[in-house]
């Protein structure tokens, strides 16, 4: 059943006059007659009774009319949706992120994207950088915000920002007066760390600095959640290390201190598969937004 024939049927059903219907459709009257006959043949039933004086709908034609209007309206909606998706104005964008980016970076990117593409549906999932990389390769995610990772040859990356590691101590801790703090000052401190899979590069740098200062760190526990780390420090149970972005979200009972010892910055980057971006205008728009807001780092 051809949608064109349905459109012709609806117009003829509304006018009940072949000549007027043909004029509305910008068709020759014989072409309209052929279109209606073809539709009747496809459906196996007469839709109009016609004679020299009038054109009337049959019972089948009367039953078809509301259904035809619904089908044509749905077809028009589907066409508009496909056009919107082709322009990046609709569809689905699946975004992975690490917890630290949810403080300022991710909200900044989402505000800009939503303002330009309000009809694109967003799916957000917090995951470790390694898990996001696996999800990208498996086609389960469109774009990722990852930390301290070279994601591999099949994934494109754009560096967004670099962050320092800061020392977290309970408010009122003796180390507050000694900032910037050397690792050697942590010899008697219980330490809580984020697990290595959350931020492997920073985890390794913390251990390397401890060992370089002859310090065998007293690890009280390793946690997967930065909020749990903050809670442990706020409770006065340990000190810890987190990225400078966390300092922008004040937490009662926690003081962020700079470290005296130089450590390489932690790098957050945007990651995606180029072949996926080629098929997704919404993803390309998100990438352009991030690249424009955060030009390449030196």
UniProtKB/TrEMBL annotation:
GO molecular function: DNA binding; DNA-binding transcription factor activity
Keywords: DNA-binding, Membrane, Transcription, Transcription regulation, Transmembrane, Transmembrane helix
Signal peptide range: none
Transmembrane spans: 91-110, 228-250
CDD domains found in the cross-reference section: PBP2_LTTR_aromatics_like
Residues of the HTH lysR-type domain: 1-58
A family per Pfam: LysR_substrate
One Gene Ontology cellular component annotation held by this UniProt entry: protein-DNA complex
Record carries keyword Transmembrane: yes
Protein family per UniProt: Belongs to the LysR transcriptional regulatory family.
PANTHER family: LYSR FAMILY TRANSCRIPTIONAL REGULATOR, TRANSCRIPTIONAL DUAL REGULATOR HCAR-RELATED
Name recorded for this polypeptide: LysR family transcriptional regulator
Organism of origin: Acidithiobacillus sulfuriphilus
